[in-house]
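Recap from last week: sequence in, structure out.
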Amino acid sequence: MKKQITFSQALATLVGSVIGSGVFFKISTISKQSLSPSISLWVWIIAGILSLASALTIAEVAAELPVDGSIEYLNHTYGNLWGFLFGWAQIIVYFPAEISANSAIFGVQATNLFGLKYSWQLVISLMIVSFAFFINLFGNNFSGKLQQVLTIVKLIPLLLIVAFGLFAPQQNFDFTNFVISNKVSLTTALSGGVLAALFAFDGWITVTNLAGEMKNVQKDMARALVWGIAIVTTVYVLVNLVFLKTLPFSQIIGNQNTALDTSKILFGGLGGRLITIGILISCYGAINGFMITGMRAPFILSKQNLLPFSDKFSYTTKKTEVPVFSALIIWLLSALMISLGSFDVLTDILVFVMWFFTILLTLCQPILRIKEPNLNRPFKVPFYPVTPIVALLGGIFIIIMTVINKFWLSMVGIGLTALGLPIYLYKLKQNNK
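Predicted structure tokens:
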């Protein structure tokens, strides 16, 4: 495949994938966990710092290993089994579940905006994921440029909320007031809120699937990771600051319509339509971003002949060089999950698995510094070893809290990932022959 993806296209893919519906709805869960307006904002900052530490650490690996992304970072450091299991988890559940979840929210919001019947939600959800699939068949350059446009457009309503909200009449809000309800301790409030906020950052690592097609991967992938997380964090913090300054906190706790209520105050009658359009654009941007990166996962594994029908999954069209069968499997699995309506549970399951692999990817950085000190490192993680330690602590925190709060879902996630093991062993034996 041609190396034609630019820094700005990779950056737009990361930002566009991560900023989906969570920026509008996550404050409901976080406020319920924290029970404090100041803690509700601080958890976004802490989650951003932890995510940025991970991005900075993995950015060094991306710069020193000009290969096909995180799957091959794991191959290089630990052996092919770990890269395969990561790719398998992405294919079988992660990308289809993320696409399905955003498509379902798109269907709900579209029916609300146009006053359609409930029965149209499923139809619209299937239509939008199919549209994303066919759009991506036009080629990497086209889909990358479209993602740039979508990311810019999706940021406009968020920037309007920030611009008007910061100067509108405000609630009393003390950024340093950590007084919380007697129902929970400060530790519980912070940990529960940070865990919920970190889930909103989920998906940034998948942009590394584009590494094999980037024009200057050793320079641009590191920049895309770092700048992408920085932009996402800034947007999350500012938007949620406006929510907390505009509405009484009692009206935010557990309120799924916080963004809608805020927009009505800021923009009057147009507020509802503005926020709904913003949600639609954000959801489609995430769908398109995950479709771009998702179709690369089976393609990368098939190039190593580690999947059944690898010859099909590694096939690219002559004119556009799109891995059409890889895109097709992600589309079909996404449509299936939309029809079954099980994507939320599957997403919760795979968050645990994805963060487990993120920890492994973070550890690649110190391991490669020790084992291969002479590698060319165009980018080095700042404040080493503090930054990798912060990243590891964040990942371990997510793993431990997920096991505590969702033990059986975590075990199912491990089981689904382990299902790929027999396929790997079979294909390895077949390849050796």
